[in-house]
Amino acid sequence: MNARRPGALVGMLHDPRPSLRSTPIWRPRRVLVTASALAHRHGRSIAERAEAMGIAVERLHSDRLPVDRGEDARKAYARAKSTLAVVVAPPSKLRLQPIAPSADWRVDLAEGCPAHCSYCYLAGSLKGPPITRVYANLDEIVAALPAYLGQGAVTSRSAERAGEGTTFEASCYTDPLAIEPVTGSLSALISSFGRWEAPVQLRFTTKFASVDPLLDLDHRGRTRMRASLNPAAFARFEGGTSRVAERLQALRRIAEAGYPIGLTIAPIIAADGWQDAYGGLVGDIAAVLGDLPATADPTVELITHRYTPGSKAVLDSWYPGSDLDMSADRRREKRTRFGAVKQVYDAPTMGALKRFIETEIAARLPAMRILYWT
Ligand code: SF4
């Protein structure tokens, strides 16, 4: 295992924000625990963790959340984003859904995220104010997984990715590391995959860097952490997340702790200066992750920016000052197999992005395996 420490590289990275001061971990202002959630061991444990962090916990007498739908939309948004609700996942969450091209199945620990990304993919799927709801019935969620062993259509059926086993993606409706300090859910899930003697892999991607609680877990190499990255020059689109330099350092520490790792370069944005920005990002990655332990098996996932009419309307209301381009310029419609319409980049823009970024990765990150471009 390589023991090189990445700290000395921080100053080399192209992040315009002041360096060295760590992004603080998230502390919700308000923690609500529903009556049903309190009946679950994990629900009570989250309440106790929050109280140990000095956060007052409101134990509710019912399962109805006191949601603020006040007149001032900005304040309601800010209050929702700083609230953690501990709830019981509905039965539908225990019936897993496929999640190509990332993984065979989706496993949800929570719904919602405290960060403020102006492209957030959750905007089209969350209903109501963006409170983060974490699931108390983690034991039931974990117990549902074995029924899906060997059943997926992505890694379970792919010659190239068969070595990953049956894969379960935990980042579809939340950033699980963002909420880990107060929930402990991710550590519990990683440990349960460590105990699961089967060809399986838990996957999560994150824009956060607080990996300390994960380093000493008995993960047995059955969890792959990916850092979700964009050039530091585009940091204005990723409010409330950890700096890119911190995310890269965190990924290196996780690799040194024996986890397989990956990069999710997402969402790839064709904003002015994107060639320099993504070229700089690939250089920064190479500087920190150029020599990794063999267990790291680094992969790359490349996801371009897209939005739906519904997510655009929500994001326009949440982030009215954002200069993220969601106009029709250089876009085309793409229809999903469920009939929904997404705006993706048009063919010339998509082709230019793909050629440039894949060429940079091949030249400067030759050990990294590209899993897909979308
Ligand atoms: S970190 Fe991810 S989930 Fe959280 S706001 Fe940003 S894009 Fe959304």
Describe this structure in words.
It is a single chain. This protein has about 375 residues and is an alpha/beta fold. It is about 30% helix and about 20% strand. The chain has helices at about 35-40, 40-50, 75-80, 140-145, 180-185, 185-195, 245-255, 275-290, 310-320, 345-365; strands at about 30-35, 55-60, 85, 100, 105, 110, 115, 130-135, 165-170, 200-205, 225-230, 240, 260-270, 300-305, 330-335, 340-345, 370-374. Strands 4-5-9-10-11-13-14-17 form an 8-stranded mixed sheet. α7 (about 245-255) packs parallel to α8 (about 275-290) and α8 (about 275-290) packs parallel to α10. It is globular. Bound molecules: iron/sulfur cluster.
Features of this protein?
374 residues, alpha/beta, eight-stranded mixed β-sheet, five-stranded mixed β-sheet, 20% strand, binds iron/sulfur cluster
Can you lay out the helices and strands and say which pair or pack?
Elements: E1 30-33, H1 35-38, H2 41-52, E2 57-59, H3 73-81, E3 83-87, E4 98-99, E5 103-106, E6 110-111, E7 116-117, E8 132-135, H4 138-143, E9 166-169, H5 180-183, H6 185-195, E10 200-206, E11 223-229, E12 238-239, H7 244-256, E13 261-268, H8 274-289, E14 299-304, H9 309-318, E15 331-335, E16 341-345, H10 347-364, E17 369-373
Parallel strand pairs: 1-2, 1-3, 3-8, 5-9, 9-10, 10-11, 11-13, 13-14, 14-17
Antiparallel strand pairs: 4-5, 6-8, 7-12, 15-16
The chain binds iron/sulfur cluster.
Give a short synopsis of this structure:
The chain has 10 helices and 17 strands. The protein is of the alpha/beta class and 374 residues long.
